[in-house]
Write a structure and sequence with these properties.
204 residues, Rossmann fold, 7-stranded mixed sheet, 7 helices, globular
């Protein structure tokens, strides 16, 4: 897509305009808002981790939806402009020093909700981009398996295609309830969907 075409699509996108008017950093905010309406993601949550958080629209929603004493921790390799009430850790969540920082912020508690709207930098090579999308979702699932409270939830963006069915099977192995969602704010031509896992099975 050319920059001119992309700009024209952005200008005509109602979610882009709405995000500007309502102060959200990206149109993706409305995907999470719909997911929350359908699956009550934030109900009872006190500690939320946002993986791959930049530019920060999902962290904005999380901060709004939690009580004042709730904690939102955002992690990303990319820089993110600070959000009041959100702790940001710059780095790769697979690395030990980053996990140690996270552990310090959690103060011995488990996480109630893990969010991942991560997507690979698209190369335009379909099979490669698909494999990288699945890999990011697998990383988020592995992270959630270790850090979530037993009643916790995970939301992950993934593209449908090769590897999706295997990922879905793994979600069902880990979580008691698994749902596939396609929010209205997700562009119709996009293959992206969101997997929502609710409540870890015993033994995770």
């Amino acid at each position: 897509m050319s920059s001119k075409t992309w700009k024209a699509r952005q200008e005509s996108d109602p979610y882009v305009r709405r995000a500007r008017e309502e102060g959200y950093r990206a149109r993706a905010a409305y995907k999470l808002l719909e997911l929350d309406e359908r699956d009550r993601l934030f109900k009872g949550a006190r500690r939320v981790v946002d993986l791959g958080s930049a530019p920060g629209s999902w962290s904005q929603i999380a901060r709004q939806r939690l009580a004042d004493d709730g904690r939102v921790i955002a992690l990303d390799l990319l820089p993110m402009t600070p959000i009041p009430g959100v702790d940001f850790i710059a780095g790769d969540f697979r690395e030990n020093d980053i996990l140690e920082q996270l552990e310090g912020l959690l103060e011995g508690h488990k996480i109630d909700l893990v969010l991942s709207d991560m997507a690979p930098n698209l190369s335009g090579i379909g099979p490669s981009d698909q494999a990288r999308s699945i890999h990011l979702a697998e990383l988020a699932l592995d992270f959630a398996s270790s850090w979530l409270d037993i009643s916790g939830k995970l939301v992950v963006k993934v593209f449908q295609g090769a590897g999706f069915d295997e990922l879905l099977t793994e979600f069902r192995r880990v979580f008691k309830t698994v749902r596939i969602r396609k929010p209205a704010a997700s562009r119709p031509e996009s293959r992206e969907v969101y997997l929502v896992g609710i409540a870890l099975k015993s033994g995770q």
